[in-house]
Specification:
By secondary structure, the protein is mainly β. The protein is built from 2 helices and 4 strands, in the order βββααβ. It has one domain. The protein has a 4-stranded antiparallel sheet with strand order 1-4-3-2, with no helix packed on it. The protein is elongated, with a radius of gyration of 15 Å.
């Protein structure tokens, strides 16, 4: 885990979903890659139906940890459907077998 932070509170009755994006990958050696993934935990969002034709701002998937106020400003300005609905941001590095050339 590179970083993780809560953005908006959730309640026991909230449904939690997520969207993730690969933001970087690095070949470690001939057999292994490190893949950096940013995940946004979403509360009460039906990702298949509500986000199907929505352009989620690239800035939300920044490798940097964003402040909650910055996330809310981005959502309000560029993606209102996610305003007050991002519960978590997390960036992690996953190791996987390297793809064959």
């Amino acid at each position: 885990m590179v970083h993780s932070s809560h953005i908006n509170t959730v309640a026991p009755e909230d449904r939690i979903g997520a969207v993730s994006r690969i933001i970087d990958f690095e070949k470690m050696d001939e057999n292994l890659e490190a893949v950096t993934v940013k995940t946004l935990g979403l509360k009460n969002v039906d990702t298949c139906n509500e986000l199907q034709n929505i352009d989620i701002p690239e800035a939300l998937f920044s490798a940097e940890e964003l402040k909650p106020s910055d996330i809310e400003a981005l959502c309000s300005d560029q993606c209102p459907v996610l305003s007050q609905r991002i519960a978590l941001q997390a960036t992690r590095v996953l190791l996987r077998p390297a793809c064959a050339p």
